């Protein structure tokens, strides 16, 4: 009977990710099986949460998942856990629609779990009471079961905050975390620096766990909500057994949805991971998948690995079925220019990548396939997302595209999905959901080329 709660905040940058990491790691240290989830389209927080909990983290997203899919995914991976933690994005009631329906509060209601509200206490004392009581009153169907006060200046500050909350509200204070330089993660343009790029990430997680264990009532939190969840056993298909897909996974490329990777395996596909910084050739495989990441932070090492660059180019030009997203698209272009320095990349895409100071594409995307799309049974409307601080220049005028962009930016505000040989490379990040079974489409394409 797992315990479950939703960790949200009054606004973004309240420190809820650090609190989430600390809670996951602290519960794990108690020998509990911890399952984490993240609301919305995010790769970086799930990488951290997976490391902290010891289990893969899964995304729950109203934009491209039905309510039934969200519930099914949540129950599938919660059923075998002792405690489940969903980390929200932005504030508790923030979403795309002004009338609600897609906010953190709506996800907590859908899954019928209590909310623990992280409050950034910087520069506030008595004023915390109307803030907390206002959140409680805004939607009576949301169960705010407790508050964790964050970034506390000292004993006096903590005392004033707790007195105000206890006097004016009936919401319990579950913890009060002191401000500390030990609880700061470096940020990059897409959010927190990924744990897969940070050698000291485990040390940070351990430090966060100690702060949380010392300053948060873990026993009270783990007993907030317990309910029986019926286990769901995934079905393994034998149709695609024998197919192997090489997947780039290292400090340059690490942006993959875990349930997308699971979808390959559910089809009987073997995933073989390789390192673009160290491996000199691709592993033996029937296809290639290069996801997103921050290749711009590893340009010298990527460019210096000429043996792998040449092997990837030769195999794609020889017809190796390949799918690449965002960072993978950049890696397959001729070169990447960052801070005035250009480095040669694979060069199978006739375009140059240029990093920019401001976001080019950031947010939800809607695509429609063109007649050029090489995969079969592609959805007429695809709901996905993009996050890129780069653009393509000097694109070959004869480039073919797989998608028309209905919402978002893609390659040129009109199109996305560059096609060459058996390669499809997009700025858009796809999600394997009921309305877009892209993994099966790609696997079927691979089978047709073997």
Automatic annotation (TrEMBL):
InterPro entries registered for this protein in UniProt: CbiA/CobB_synth (IPR004484), Class_I_gatase-like (IPR029062), CobQ/CobB/MinD/ParA_Nub-bd_dom (IPR002586), GATase_3 (IPR011698), P-loop_NTPase (IPR027417)
UniProt-listed Gene3D superfamilies = 3.40.50.880, P-loop containing nucleotide triphosphate hydrolases
Pfam families linked to this entry:
CbiA (PF01656), GATase_3 (PF07685)
Could you cite one Gene Ontology molecular function of this protein? cobyrinic acid a,c-diamide synthase activity
Keyword set, alphabetical order: ATP-binding, Glutamine amidotransferase, Ligase, Magnesium, Nucleotide-binding
Q: Domain CobB/CobQ-like glutamine amidotransferase, which positions?
A: 244-430
- Signal peptide boundaries: none
PANTHER family in the record: COBYRINATE A,C-DIAMIDE SYNTHASE
Q: What is this protein called?
A: Cobyrinic acid A,C-diamide synthase
State the organism named in the record.
hydrothermal vent metagenome
């Amino acid at each position: 009977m797992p315990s479950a709660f939703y960790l949200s905040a009054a606004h973004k940058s309240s420190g809820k990710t650090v609190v989430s990491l600390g809670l996951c790691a602290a519960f794990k240290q108690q020998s509990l099986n911890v399952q984490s989830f993240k609301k919305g389209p995010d790769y970086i927080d799930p990488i951290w949460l997976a490391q902290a909990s010891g289990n893969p983290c899964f995304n729950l997203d109203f934009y491209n998942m039905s309510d039934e899919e969200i519930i099914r995914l949540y129950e599938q991976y919660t059923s075998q856990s002792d405690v489940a933690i969903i980390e929200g994005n932005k504030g508790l009631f923030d979403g795309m629609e002004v009338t609600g329906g897609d906010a953190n509060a709506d996800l907590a209601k859908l899954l019928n779990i209590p909310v623990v509200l992280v409050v950034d206490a910087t520069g506030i004392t008595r004023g915390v009471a109307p803030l907390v009581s206002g959140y409680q009153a805004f939607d009576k169907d949301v169960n705010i079961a407790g508050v964790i006060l964050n970034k506390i200046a000292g004993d006096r500050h903590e005392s004033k905050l707790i007195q105000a909350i206890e006097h004016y509200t009936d919401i319990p204070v579950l913890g009060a975390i002191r401000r500390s330089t030990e609880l700061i993660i470096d940020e990059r343009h897409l959010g927190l620096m990924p744990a897969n790029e940070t050698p000291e990430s485990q040390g940070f997680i351990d430090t966060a766990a100690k702060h949380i264990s010392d300053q948060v009532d873990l026993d009270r939190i783990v007993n907030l909500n317990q309910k029986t969840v019926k286990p769901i056993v995934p079905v393994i298909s034998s149709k695609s057994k024998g197919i192997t897909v090489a997947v780039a996974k290292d400090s340059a490329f690490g942006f993959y949805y875990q349930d997308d990777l699971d979808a390959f395996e559910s089809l009987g596909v073997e995933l073989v991971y390789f390192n673009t910084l160290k491996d000199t050739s691709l592993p033996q495989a029937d296809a290639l998948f290069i996801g997103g990441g921050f290749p711009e932070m590893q340009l010298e090492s990527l460019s210096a690995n000429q043996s792998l660059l040449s092997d990837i180019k030769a195999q794609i030009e020889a017809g190796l079925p390949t799918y690449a997203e965002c960072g993978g698209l950049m890696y397959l272009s001729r070169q990447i220019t960052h801070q005035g320095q250009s480095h040669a990349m694979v060069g199978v895409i006739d375009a140059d990548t240029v990093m920019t100071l401001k976001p080019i594409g950031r947010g939800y995307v809607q695509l429609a396939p063109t007649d050029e799309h090489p995969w079969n049974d592609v959805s007429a409307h695809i709901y996905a997302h993009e996050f890129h601080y780069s653009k393509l220049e000097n694109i070959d005028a004869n480039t073919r595209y797989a998608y028309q962009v209905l919402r978002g930016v893609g390659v040129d505000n009109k199109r996305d999905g560059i096609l060459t040989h058996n390669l499809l490379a997009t700025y858009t990040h796809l999600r394997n959901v009921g309305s877009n079974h892209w993994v099966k489409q790609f696997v079927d394409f691979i089978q047709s080329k073997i």
